[in-house]
Amino acid sequence: MTGLSHTAATFIAQHAAWAGLALGLVTFGESMVVVGAFLPATVMLLAAGGMIAAGVLEPISVFGWALVGAILGDALSYWLGRRLGARALRHPLLSPHHRLVARTRLLTRRHGVASLFIGRFAGPLRAFIPVAAGMARMPARHFHLANIGSAVVWVAAFLTPGYLAARGVSAIPASTLIGVLAGLGAAAAAILAISKLRGWRPLPRALQTTAGCGLRVAPC
């Protein structure tokens, strides 16, 4: 655990009443373009899962705040991408990360809405995918549905291992473990299936342009 992660975990353990809000702020920041590369939200969620198992934190508050933060962070990044369009690539905060941006745009071009789910677990690319979706003018309804669904899976996926590690897998009924794994699997499958339905196709044909044009709505 990094110094920042350790400090944050200590604060949360000592101020349980503020733990939910603190985690919400961390997941919000981790979901923001550029800022997310410097915030250890995944490590914090694992630690929080362990604290829930120990009875230090209240699970509903932690899950709810972390979920809201993750959703709002991606939504704001998406809005910035839609508002700035291609100008976002020339922004001083994004220009130093041109390689990450290029990889993110390629992922979004290939997988469309499904990239929002993939991006939750894509490490350094994660915070750049919502802004790329906004630049590509992904329909807002499609984005927000995938954003909410993928956030539920992401938060649960990182709280659960911490909880299981602290509680001890052998101490948890098999039916509970099967239910948790089945729920996560079903949610992931549902999101990926929805992304394949008509109306959830990757991106409009107008966006399948040359690499030099990038993800633009209008032809070059």
From TrEMBL:
Belongs to the DedA family. It is found in: Cell membrane. It comes from Caulobacter radicis. Keywords: Cell membrane, Membrane, Transmembrane, Transmembrane helix. The keyword Transmembrane applies. Its main location: membrane. GO terms for cellular component: plasma membrane. Residues 40-163 form the VTT domain. It comes from the Bacteria. This is DedA family protein. The chain crosses the membrane at residues 6-26, 33-56, 62-81, 145-166, 172-195. It holds the Pfam family VTT_dom. It is a multi-pass membrane protein.
